[in-house]
Design goal:
Elements: E1 3-7, H1 49-60, H2 70-84, E2 92-96, E3 115-118, H3 125-129, E4 135-141, H4 147-161, H5 174-183, E5 186-200, H6 203-213, H7 228-242, E6 249-262, H8 282-293
Parallel strand pairs: 2-3
Antiparallel strand pairs: 1-2, 1-4, 4-6, 5-6
Amino acid sequence: MSAAALLRGPGSLLLRASSGCWCRRFWAASGKTAPAASPGSGARSPFDRQLKRKQKNWAALQPEPAKYDYLREEVGGRVADRVFDITRTFPLALDVGCGSGYIAQYLNKETVEKLFQVDMAENALIHQVLKPDGVFIGAMFGGETLYELRCSLQLAELEREGGFSPHVSPFTDVTDLGHLLGRAGFNTLTVDTDEIQVNYPGMFEIMEDLKGMGESNCSWNRKPILHRETMLAAAAIYQEMYGSNDGSVPATFEIYYMIGWKFQESQARPAQRGSATVSFGDLAKINALISRKK
């Protein structure tokens, strides 16, 4: 998915474009990435990043890559809505995971004066370049994404092979996002969820589109192949459990949207506990007074 980091003020190494103009740059990450969740953490990453780069590059080289952009186009518009909700003009913005510009097409110079776009950026880039009081706005797949596909594959594999392995990349739980953003150094956090449901002719069309999006499974413990009988059984289970009257099957994509701000002294802070001058218990009295006046 994509993340847009809105930066306040100049002074970054990214400022090599002429002022007052839109600038689009794609950085190609090179070299091998160690399978660590974060530098020095010692935790193993669940994803094979080199495989994910290959999947993305393969998808970009297809004859009609735009036919698989419908989901990112929709999420890009919803991320842009959250940018417009902030009543501020940002001199500089960084779009991490930009793809073909899913967020940029909705922005204007009244909101973002200069935009840089980056794809497959390396760890910690966003927070390092954020200015004080800069805001990070991101979107990613949530834990309920493709639950229909995952359930169907698991049931079919249990029936045909006596066990199952993950065939969809793992997703973050919404309860972990606030903790992760806090560890990254952001405060005044906001997290909300949304669901997008897309109807397909069948399970195989879903898997074809996921491949076209570059979103095939890239977890380290992935199973290299699925037997034909298992795939056919999964498609039948999918149709039986989730199929519509018109023969189509739904695929649910849960999207997490997150907003975090880099600390600055002038930012608003929560009031101290016990400093309130009005009790929530008074709300009932206020409602009663309003009712009498009516």
